[in-house]
Amino acid sequence: MKKFFSIFLTCLLVAAMLVGCGATGNTGNNSSNNGTPSSTPANNSGNDKVIKIALVTKMVDSPYWQTVKKAAEAKAKELGNVEITHLGPPTEADIDKQVQIVETCINDDYDGIILAACDKDALVEPVRKAKEAGIPVIMIDSGISEPIYDAFLATNNVQAGAECAKLMAELIGGKGQVAIINFAAGTQTAVDRETGFTQEIKNNYPDIEIVGVQYCNSDPTVAANQATDFISAYPGLKGIWGANDQSAIGVAQAVTEQGKTESVMVVGFDNSDDIKAGLKSGTIKGTAVQMPTTMGAQGVQLVVDILGGKAPASKDVDTGVTMVTTENMNDEKMQAILNQ
């Protein structure tokens, strides 16, 4: 009897062990059927990483820079794993603040920086530091004096300035006095636009005199006061060129207040709501429209490409400019450009 009982216990023990092994196998199968992997493949993990990009513009509260931001965010949403943080100083004249912002971005471990420089020289060292930290830097709109960045997306501002000069010359009949309200003395964009405008006048329109240049630091109120001073000092003034949207808005305001909308031609730059209103009313006769949407969207794509090991096809990219006037502004193509 004892022998039988011993054999019986042994059989029970073996049976229990077999059941245990079977249960363990079934648990693994159930896990697989539910679609829960035991580990995440390395390549999938890389795709899930959020890429943090700092969009650092010359200021934040400007229709132009808000358009750039909107395009950058749309591209980030399309890519799905990109996060955009829009940063900038209170005004374009606050160069030290922009330098500080870029240096903070380096310390905060952003994966990439898209930068429109307030000053062509002051931002060289911050860009150098970013590159040394392994952070891709894409310049947009306004560059720096040393080509240490990964790529530069911008309007050919010398050519754009020349196009504005051609339009001004046409509007005033090729002769007379004109003035320039520029937006910043040290920004490469401002320098290039002014160079293009003044060279075009000097080389091709000997009967046009540029009576002076003032810098408003992208403040429409300052631009309006400067334009008023020009109108008072030169009673025969035929035209004023505002070299960016804020400059042109201030000039248009001054010309309107002085009752000179028919005698002083205003040519602007960019395509904010106020610029479009000026075109519609005829206060602004024409404007050079850039492609800020291209700068924002392509800037994001280039950062992502570089992080993925793909170098830019070209270091310098001309994003284009179109002259929109009171005459052609209602064309379908021009409307699309104006309302990008």
Task: List the keywords.
single chain, 340 residues, alpha/beta, 2 domains, six-stranded mixed beta sheet, 12 strands, 18% strand, disordered N terminus
Question: Could you characterize the architecture of this molecule?
Answer:
The chain is α/β, with parallel strands linked by helices and 340 residues long. The protein has two domains: 49-155 and 292-309, 3-Layer(aba) Sandwich (Rossmann fold), CATH 3.40.50; 157-289 and 326-338, Response regulator (Rossmann fold). Helices cover 50% and strands 18% of the residues. The protein has twelve helices and twelve strands. It has helices at 2-33, 42-48, 63-79, 95-107, 124-132, 157-171, 188-204, 220-233, 245-257, 273-281, 292-307, 332-338, and strands at residues 51-56, 82-87, 112-115, 137-140, 151-154, 176-182, 208-215, 237-242, 265-269, 286-289, 316-318, 322-325. Strands 2-1-3-4-5-11 form a six-stranded parallel beta sheet, sandwiched between helices. Strand 3, helix 5 (124-132) and strand 4 form a beta-alpha-beta unit. Helix 3 packs parallel to helix 11 and helix 8 (220-233) packs across helix 9 (245-257). Mean pLDDT is 88; it is low at 1-46.
CA-based shape: elongated
Please state how the strands of the largest beta sheet are arranged side by side: 2-1-3-4-5-11
CATH class of the largest domain equals Alpha Beta
Number of strands: 12
CATH topology label of the largest domain = Rossmann fold
Distance between the termini: 96 Å
The CATH architecture term of the largest domain is 3-Layer(aba) Sandwich
Task: Give the integer mean of the pLDDT values.
Answer: 88
Quote the beta fraction. 15-25%
Question: Tally the helices: what do you get?
Answer: 12
Helix content range: 40-55%
SSE ordering? HHEHEHEHEEHEHEHEHEHEHEEH
Number of domains: 2
How big is the Rg?
Answer: 31 Å
- Summing up helix and strand content along with how strands pair, one would put the structural category as alpha/beta
How is the biggest beta sheet arranged? Answer: 6 strands, parallel
Low-confidence stretches: 1-46
